[in-house]
Design goal:
Distance between the termini: 77 Å
CATH architecture of the largest domain: Orthogonal Bundle
CATH topology of the largest domain: hpI Integrase, Chain A
Strand order of the largest sheet: 1-2-3
Number of strands: 10
CATH class of the largest domain: Mainly Alpha
Number of domains: 3
Largest sheet: 3 strands, antiparallel
Strand content: 5-15%
Shape: elongated
């Protein structure tokens, strides 16, 4: 480790001990946090110098830093950014798949084959699906980028491949028979008793619009102007309000007649139940629903109505996409808010009023084919 040549000094104007150090052109100042730091108190001087020494060692020991240590720093950076869901997923991928394979390796000695072995091992040992392997790959790439930004490595892994035989994720949708039940039955159960489901219109709106569950429970009255809906925010599984899954999650679309009627029915139900809320589909106390509450309520509804199979709330979105199979792909992506990387026709920046009108007509026509 390089030897530090300077010492901490007392700053009379700032009333603290501090020391400035530099490594590879990067400068940093360290100070003492001792509340009783005084010119004649050496504890403050020692503390500032200890911080500086630790930083110098961290900056100059890149050849020795192992993946397990650097990966923890990567996780800490994700958590500090407030991305709790992202943190949980990366922590799981690291603990289960990444660290057992390359955790003891030094970051600067990593090769593309090392990273590829993580993906191959996950597939060979557990037969993980293509989507999960893609997520692990994304975590690896994000980790290496973090290490580059932190001057731990200069490594660029290139493209990591997913085994061609990895199982593709199968999207389950609501059975056509069950779809008719959804729009004719509002019964459910609660504590063993038959009730009128207070969230029936939320289920119907979800399948008629293709919004994500988090977007549905975060939808506010102010987000609806006439027959146009603007998705402004989402609520994740931790109950935190976010800006949505990606930058294109925020979008505006026009409601068809069926979805408009569902909103009118929802307003009538809220008045009947005496619930006042800023949210369109609130909890009974007027606050926003949680993802967990919505999942449990939807599952009870499916069981009470004898659905052929249970589909998750997110698969109501898959149902929307499947039923609207005749809608042009560009219009469909406009409605569901897919990321720009999936936008092959470049329509997101050039949306027109007639696009929304056409999409609304497609949706009503498609659903009426099933519900008539």
């Amino acid at each position: 480790m390089p030897v530090r040549k300077n010492e901490a000094y007392w700053s009379e104007s700032l009333q603290r001990w501090q020391i400035k150090v530099q490594v590879d052109g990067q400068r940093k100042t360290f100070v003492s946090s001792k509340k009783n730091s005084q010119p004649d108190n050496k504890r403050g001087k020692i503390e500032a110098e200890r911080k500086a020494d630790a930083w110098i060692e961290d900056r100059t020991s890149g050849d020795k830093i192992k993946v397990e240590k650097a990966f923890q720093k990567y996780l800490d950076s994700i958590k500090a950014a407030g991305s709790l869901e992202h943190y949980r997923k990366c922590e799981q991928y690291g603990r289960c798949w990444i660290l057992p394979v390359i955790g003891t390796k030094k970051v600067r000695s990593l090769t593309k084959n090392d990273l590829q072995s993580v993906i191959n091992n996950a597939f060979q040992k557990k037969g993980l699906a293509e989507k999960t392997l893609q997520n692990i790959r994304g975590c690896l790439v994000g980790f290496i980028k973090y290490c580059r930004d932190d001057n731990i490595t200069t490594f660029y892994p290139g493209t990591l491949s997913i085994p061609a035989t990895a199982k593709k994720s199968e999207k389950t949708i609501v059975d056509p028979r069950d779809l008719k039940i959804l729009f004719t039955s509002s019964k459910s159960t609660f504590k063993g008793k038959i009730i009128e489901d207070p969230y029936i219109h939320a289920y119907r709106f979800a399948v008629l619009t293709g919004v994500r569950p988090g977007e549905l429970i975060a939808l506010r009255k102010q987000d609806i102007k006439g027959n146009k809906v603007t998705i402004m925010q989402s609520i994740n599984d931790s109950g935190k309000i976010t800006q949505g899954k990606n930058k294109n999650a925020r979008r505006t679309f026009k409601l068809g007649e069926l979805a408009t009627l569902v909103l009118l029915d929802q307003a009538d139900l809220m008045e009947k139940l005496g619930i006042e809320s800023q949210y369109v589909f609130p909890a009974r106390d007027g606050s926003h629903l949680t993802q967990k509450q919505f999942r449990f309520a939807w599952k009870r509804y499916c069981e009470a109505n004898g659905f052929a199979k249970y589909v998750t709330p997110y698969e109501l979105r898959h149902t929307f996409v499947s039923i609207n199979d005749e809608m042009p792909e560009a219009l469909k992506k406009m409605i569901v808010g897919h990321s720009k990387s999936m936008d092959t026709e470049g329509v997101y920046g050039h949306r027109k009023q007639d696009d929304m009108d056409r999409a609304a007509i497609y949706i009503d026509t498609a659903f009426m084919r099933y519900l008539k």
